[in-house]
Amino acid sequence: MADTELRTEKDAVPAAEAPLVPPAPPAIQELALAGEAAAGTVAGIPGRAGVERARTVIVYTLLFGIALLYFVPFLWMISTSLKTLPETAYFSLLPKHPTLDAYRDALTTFHFARYAANSAGLALAVTALNVFLASLAGYAFARLHFPGREILFFAVLVTLMIPDQLRLVPIFVKFSEWHLLGHYHAYVLIKLAAATQLFLMRQYFLTIPRDLEEAAKLDGAGYFKTFWKVMLPLAGPALAAIAILEFEGVWNDFFWPLIIFNTAPDHYTLPVGIFAFVSEFQTLWPQLMASTTIAILPMAIVYIVFQRYFVAGVASAGVKG
C-alpha cells in the first residue's frame, strides 16, 4: 500500500508543468448566478409578454387615431380639389366625378407662378437674414458679457407678447410716410429679425462647451472669428430648425403681405393671391383647394428633408448646459 502511494506521488505531474487555471473569484460567480436568477425571474412572470403586447397595440392604435384625425382636413382638401363646383355643395368625402380642372384653372387663369415666385423670394430673403442675425445675436447673449445684457434680453422676450395687430397702425403710418408700401423691402424690414429664433439660438449656444471657445482664443481668434469658425458650424441643427420655422412662417403669412402689398397686386404672395378665389357672392372651392394643395407641397418637402435636423435643433435648444 505504501509503495503504491509512493509511485503515485512520483508519477504525478509536477506543479510547474500543470496548466495554470486560476479559479474564478467568488464575487464574479455570485454576480453571474444572481444575474441568471434575475433573468429567469423576469421571464418567468406569467402573462408579462401578453401585457407588453397589449400595451404596444393600444399605444399604436391611439397614435394612429390621432394621426388620422390630423390627416382628415388634408384628405378633405385634396378630395374637394378633385370635385366640380356643384359637388362641393354636398357632404361627400370622395368625389363622384373626379377631375383635374381645378388644378388647370389654378395654374393657368390664376397667376400662380407669379405669386409663388414672390413667396419664394421673400421667404428665402427673410430666412437668410433671420438665420444670420438670430445666430449672431444669440451668440452675443449667450457668451458675451456687456452691461445691460439681461435687461436687453428680457426686452427682446417681451416683444413676443406684442401681437402683430397691435403694431399694425404705427407701422402702416410710418411706412406710408416713408413711401415703403407696395415694395418688397418693406415686408423684409418687418420680418428682419424674430425674437423666437434669437431665443432658440441663444439656448443652443449655451449647450456648447466653453472649452472650444477657449481653444480658439488661445489660437488668437477674436469674437467674430470664434463665432464664424467654431460656434456657427456646431449649431447646424439649431440653424436648420429656425430656417424651417421662418421659411414656413413667411410662406404661409397672410396678414402682413395683405397690408403691405394691398396697392401692388403684382407683389401678392400665394396666401393673398389664393384669397382671390373667395368673392362676396361665390367661393370657387375646387380652385381654392387645388391652389392650396399645390402651395403646401414645398413646405412638406422642406420639412421631410430637414425633419431630423429640425427635431434635433428644437430638442437641444430647450436644454441649458
Question: In terms of topology, how is this protein built?
Answer:
Layout: H1 2-11, H2 26-43, H3 48-81, H4 101-108, H5 112-143, H6 149-158, H7 164-177, H8 184-190, H9 195-206, H10 210-218, H11 223-234, H12 236-251, H13 255-260, H14 270-274, H15 285-305, H16 307-317
What descriptors fit this protein?
single chain; 321 residues; mainly alpha; MetI-like fold; disordered N terminus
Can you characterise this structure?
It is a single chain. It is flat and about 70 Å long. It is mostly helical and 321 residues long. The chain contains 16 helices and no strands. The protein has two domains: 50-81; 101-317, Orthogonal Bundle (MetI-like fold). Helix 4 (101-108) crosses helix 15. It has helices at residues 2-11, 26-43, 48-81, 101-108, 112-143, 149-158, 164-177, 184-190, 195-206, 210-218, 223-234, 236-251, 255-260, 270-274, 285-305, 307-317. Mean pLDDT is 83; it is low at 1-6, 12-18 and 36-44. It starts with a helix and ends with a helix.
- Highest CATH level, the class of the largest domain: Mainly Alpha
Helix/strand order = HHHHHHHHHHHHHHHH
Number of E-state strands: 0
CATH topology descriptor of the largest domain? MetI-like fold
Largest sheet: none
**What is the tally of helical segments?**
16
**Overall form:** flat
- Cα-to-Cα separation, first versus last residue: 80 Å
Total domain modules: 2
Estimated helix fraction: over 70%
Residue share in β-strands: under 5%
**CATH-wise, what's the superfamily of the largest domain?**
MetI-like
Low-confidence stretches: 1-6, 12-18, 36-44
Q: What's the architecture of the largest domain in CATH terms? A: Orthogonal Bundle
Global Rg: 33 Å
